[in-house]
Design a protein that fits this description.
By secondary structure, the protein is an alpha/beta fold. Helix content is 37%, strand content 21%. It contains 15 helices and 23 strands. The protein has a seven-stranded mixed beta sheet with strand order 14-15-16-13-12-18-19, sandwiched between helices. A hairpin with a 5-residue loop joins strand 5 and strand 6. The protein is globular, with a radius of gyration of 25 Å. The mean pLDDT is 97. The active site is at 260.
Length: 508
C-alpha cells in the first residue's frame, strides 16, 4: 500500500532506535497483522537486553545536553514536529486505521491530536512558571522553579498507538526531558513510522541523538523500563492489572508513575435530556473504535420516565450501524484488534447472560466477504443490573449495558458504583441536575461532562481518572508539572543570617 512506502515501512524493521540511528538486536520477531483483512503488514525485531541498555545509555547522554537548551528553543523543535505530522497526516492516519482497526476518520483524528499537543507544548515552552513567595525573614526572597527529571519512559497501548505517545513526549521534551517509548506490540509499525518522521526533524536541527528513543517489545521490555532506576518517571497506559503491577515496581524504587488505566464510563440520561442529542453521544461513545477506548461508553443510566422511548431509539440506531473495512468512510464500526479480543467479547456476552442480563440487541461475530480476518463483531446492548460482576468489569469491546433510575441521587450512585473512575457524562437541560453532577457530591471521575458523551477529550484539559483508573494526568492544563521536579529557593540578600521561626543561634 502506498501509505506504507511513504512512511518507510518495510517487511522487516529494526525495533530499537535512538533517533536517526537503529541498533541491532537479537530480540524476538514481532509480526504485525492487520485486523482489517488479516494480512501481515510487516515485522519488527524487538529489543534484547544489550540493545535496550545501549539505548538507555544514549538517552542519558542526550539528556545532559538537551536540558541545557532554552525551553523556547526546545519548543521550536516541537513546533517543527507538529509541522512534520501535518505533512504526514494522511499516510500516518491510514496506517493507524489499518494496523489498529479504527475508522479512517478516527485515524486522522488521532494524528490531529498529535498535532494539537505539539501546538500546546510549543506555547507551554514559554510558560513553565513557578511561584514567588514572601519570606518571614527580612531581606529574603523565596521562589520556586521547575527542572527536568531526566529520562521519561512511555508505555502506550494499541488503541491509541500514536496519540498517547505524543501527549507524553511533546510535554516531556519542552520540559527538558528525553523519552524512551515502548509502543504496543500489537501496533509496532506505528512506532516505526513516528520514529522516522521525528528523526527527520531532529536531524535537521542537530538535536542530540537519544532525545527520542524507541524500544519495541512485549511484556519483558515493559518490565525492564519499570525496574530501571535510570528512568525516574514511567507513564503507562493499559489495563488496571498491568498498572497495579507496574506502579508497585516503580514505587519500590521510589520512582514516579503516571497511570492511565481502565474505564467503565456511564452516561446518565435524564428525563430532562434532549433525547436526540443523547442518542448521538451514546451511540458514538459505545461503538466508536469498536468499543476499544478507555473512554468508551459502557453503561447508560436512564430515567424510568424516558427509558422505553430511549431504548427504542437505541435499538433503531444500532440497526442502522454499518460494520466493515475502517478505511472505507461509509462504515461506522471497524474490527477488534485481534481474535483474542473477539474471544473476550464472546466470553463477556456469555457471562452477562449467565448473570441475568437480557440482550435487546444481540452480539456475534461477522462472517462472509470482507470479514475474513475474524475480528469484526456486532455492537450489542443488554439490560443489566449495575452490580453484576461483568458490568463491574471493563470489557474492551462494543457491549453496552442499560439500567433505570428514579432520582438523580440514585443515578449518580450508580454512575460512581464501579471500581473505575475515568469519564462520565449527564444528558440534561436541567441546570440543577447538571450542577449537582459536577459538584463534589456528584461524579467521582477525572472527567465529567454535560450534554456531550464520555469520549472525545480535547488536549487542552488534563486527561486521566481516579480509583482503578490510576489517578494520573496527561495532556493539557498543568499536567506538565508531573514531568518536572519542583525546587524551592530562598535568597538572603541582607548582611545578616536570621533563622526561620525566630530561632536564635549565638556563637559569641
Amino acid at each position: 500500500m502506498e501509505f506504507l512506502n511513504h512512511l518507510n515501512i518495510s517487511s522487516n524493521n529494526a525495533g530499537v532506535s535512538t533517533g536517526t540511528q537503529w541498533i541491532n538486536s537479537n530480540g524476538e520477531t514481532i509480526d504485525s497483522f492487520s485486523p482489517v483483512d488479516g494480512k501481515k503488514i510487516g515485522s519488527v525485531t524487538a529489543a534484547d537486553r544489550p540493545s535496550y541498555d545501549a539505548a538507555i545509555a544514549k538517552a542519558q547522554e542526550a539528556f545532559a545536553e538537551w536540558r541545557t537548551w532554552p525551553a523556547p528553543k526546545r519548543g521550536e523543535i516541537v513546533r517543527q514536529v507538529g509541522d512534520a505530522l501535518r505533512a504526514n497526516k494522511e499516510p500516518l492516519g491510514k496506517l493507524v486505521s489499518y494496523e489498529m482497526g479504527k475508522s479512517l476518520q478516527e485515524g486522522y483524528g488521532e494524528v490531529q491530536e498529535m498535532i494539537d499537543i505539539c501546538d500546546f507544548a510549543t506555547g507551554l515552552s514559554r510558560q513553565l512558571y513557578g511561584l514567588t513567595m514572601h519570606s518571614e525573614r527580612p531581606a529574603h526572597r523565596m521562589y520556586e522553579q521547575w527542572h527536568p527529571l531526566g529520562v521519561v519512559g512511555i508505555i502506550s497501548a494499541f488503541n491509541f498507538p500514536v496519540a498517547v505517545w505524543a501527549w507524553n513526549s511533546a510535554l516531556s521534551w519542552v520540559c527538558g526531558n528525553v523519552t524512551v517509548w515502548k509502543p504496543s506490540e500489537k501496533t509496532p509499525l506505528c512506532g516505526i513510522a513516528v520514529q522516522t518522521i521525528i528523526a527527520g526533524v531532529f536531524e535537521k536541527n542537530n538535536v542530540p541523538e537519544g532525545v527520542n528513543v524507541l524500544v519495541q517489545g512485549g511484556r519483558e521490555v515493559g518490565e525492564w523500563i519499570s525496574h530501571d532506576t535510570r528512568i525516574p518517571l514511567v507513564s503507562a497506559t493499559g489495563s488496571t492489572r498491568m498498572g497495579k503491577a507496574l506502579s508497585a515496581v516503580v514505587a519500590a524504587r521510589l520512582g514516579r508513575s503516571i497511570l492511565e488505566l481502565g474505564g467503565n464510563n456511564a452516561i446518565i440520561i435524564s428525563k430532562n435530556a434532549d433525547l436526540d442529542m443523547a442518542l448521538i453521544g451514546s451511540v458514538f461513545g459505545a461503538v466508536g473504535t469498536a468499543g476499544q477506548r478507555c473512554t468508551t461508553t459502557r453503561r447508560l443510566i436512564i430515567h424510568e420516565d424516558v427509558y422505553d422511548a430511549f431504548k427504542a431509539k437505541l435499538v433503531k440506531a444500532y440497526g442502522q450501524l454499518r460494520i466493515g473495512n475502517p478505511l472505507d468512510v461509509n462504515y461506522h464500526v471497524g474490527p477488534l484488534i485481534d481474535t483474542d479480543a473477539v474471544n473476550m467479547y464472546l466470553q463477556s456476552i456469555e457471562a452477562c447472560k449467565q448473570q441475568g442480563g437480557n440482550f435487546i440487541v444481540d452480539g456475534g461475530v461477522m462472517s462472509g466477504d470482507g470479514y475474513e480476518s475474524g475480528c469484526y463483531v456486532k455492537p450489542c446492548i443488554a439490560e443489566a443490573n449495575n452490580d453484576l460482576p461483568i458490568v463491574q468489569h471493563e470489557t474492551f469491546a462494543p457491549i453496552l449495558y442499560l439500567m433505570k433510575y428514579k432520582t438523580i441521587d440514585e443515578a449518580i450512585a450508580l454512575q460512581n458504583g464501579v471500581p473505575q473512575g475515568l469519564s462520565s457524562s449527564i444528558m440534561t437541560l436541567n441546570m440543577r441536575e447538571a450542577e449537582q453532577f459536577l459538584s463534589h457530591t456528584g461524579s467521582d471521575c477525572g472527567i465529567a461532562n454535560v450534554n456531550i458523551g464520555t469520549s472525545g477529550a480535547e488536549i487542552g484539559g488534563a486527561f486521566g481518572g481516579e480509583k482503578e483508573t490510576g489517578g494520573g494526568r496527561e495532556s493539557g492544563s498543568d499536567a506538565w508539572k508531573a514531568y518536572m521536579r519542583r525546587q524551592t529557593n530562598t535568597i538572603n540578600w541582607s548582611d545578616k543570617l536570621p533563622l526561620a521561626q525566630g530561632i536564635k543561634f549565638d556563637l559569641s
